[in-house]
Design goal:
Elements: H1 2-11, E1 16-19, H2 23-32, E2 39-43, E3 52-53, E4 60-62, H3 64-70, E5 74-77, H4 83-89, E6 99-103, E7 107-109
Parallel strand pairs: 1-2, 1-5, 2-4, 5-6
Antiparallel strand pairs: 3-4, 6-7
Length: 110
């Protein structure tokens, strides 16, 4: 985890979009002190979580519409066990050249 965080700080110098799908990931963000200075916002499909903030990190949570509007260069996926499912659901982001960063068990840019 520490290795990923050090690499991400040297590789990526602009804010990233992050996808979160698990309470474990929320804890990981808090543990590492990842806040909105690195992660612009979180996308969650649940309307009950949208337009709120991640506990501890104060990163805003939006619907997938924000993703379509912003067209980010990178999407960070911390829930690596769901990477294939998430990348399939968001395959349309490739149209504008977006890449996926999968954190775990090793850092990959896809």
């Amino acid at each position: 985890i520490t290795s990923f965080w050090q690499k991400s700080q040297t590789i990526f110098t602009h804010p990233l979009l992050q996808l979160i799908d698990s309470i474990k990931i929320k804890y990981l963000l808090k543990l590492l002190g990842i806040r909105s200075d690195l992660v612009s916002y979180v996308i969650d499909r649940s309307p009950h979580k949208q337009f709120k903030y991640m506990p501890g990190s104060h990163i805003p949570v939006y619907s997938e519409d924000m993703l379509r509007n912003d067209k980010p260069d990178y999407i960070l996926i911390l829930a690596w066990n769901l990477r294939d499912e998430i990348m399939q659901q968001l395959s349309y982001v490739r149209e504008w050249g977006c890449k996926f960063i999968v954190a775990g068990p090793s850092l990959e840019v896809i």
